[in-house]
């Protein structure tokens, strides 16, 4: 008999506006950081339910919040911190390998968009999920 998967399926979403009632929806220790990151189109990963607070993650960043104005979006298979390859798509893009450093909801397209960091440089181009492929991290030079 198979046991049910007890690990909750993560949800993804963003906070397009800051609630009018101040900081009461954010854990007091996270309020300053939340003010730096929210509101906006950054898509956060949420594990579990809002009971009453949920933990949101954006790469290494962690916030504890209530649902407030959370807008859930469909996950496309990538997270901040994932290693990806940019597909050239018939030379439309410069082939690159890097780490997703920004993940936002594109309101006009109704989908997510991603920005990558190659070596230590953030690439200004935003990519759609179909323009990326997950890859294994590249080992540092000299680690063979």
Explain this structure.
The protein has 144 residues and is mostly beta strands. The protein folds into 2 domains: 11-73, SH3 type barrels (Roll); 83-134, Roll (SH3 type barrels). Helix content is 5%, strand content 34%. A 5-stranded antiparallel sheet has the order 4-3-2-1-5. A 5-stranded antiparallel sheet has the order 9-8-7-6-10, with no helix packed on it. The chain is built from 1 helix and 10 strands, in the order E-H-E-E-E-E-E-E-E-E-E. The N and C termini lie far apart (43 Å).
Provide key terms for this protein.
SH3 type barrels, five-stranded antiparallel beta sheet, about 5% helix, about 140 residues, mainly beta, 2 domains, elongated, 1 helix
């Amino acid at each position: 008999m198979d046991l049910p998967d007890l690990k909750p399926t993560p949800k993804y979403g963003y906070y397009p506006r800051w609630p009018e009632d101040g900081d009461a929806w954010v854990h007091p220790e996270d309020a300053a950081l939340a003010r730096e990151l929210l509101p906006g189109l950054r898509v956060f990963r949420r594990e579990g339910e809002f009971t009453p607070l949920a933990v949101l993650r954006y790469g290494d960043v962690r916030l504890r919040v209530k649902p407030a104005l959370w807008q859930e979006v469909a996950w496309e298979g990538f997270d901040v911190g994932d290693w990806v390859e940019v597909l050239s798509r018939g030379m439309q893009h410069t082939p690159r390998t890097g780490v997703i450093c920004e993940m936002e909801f594109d309101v006009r397209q109704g989908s997510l968009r991603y920005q990558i960091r190659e070596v230590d440089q953030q690439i200004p181009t935003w990519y759609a999920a179909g323009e990326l492929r997950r890859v294994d991290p590249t080992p540092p030079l000299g680690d063979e």
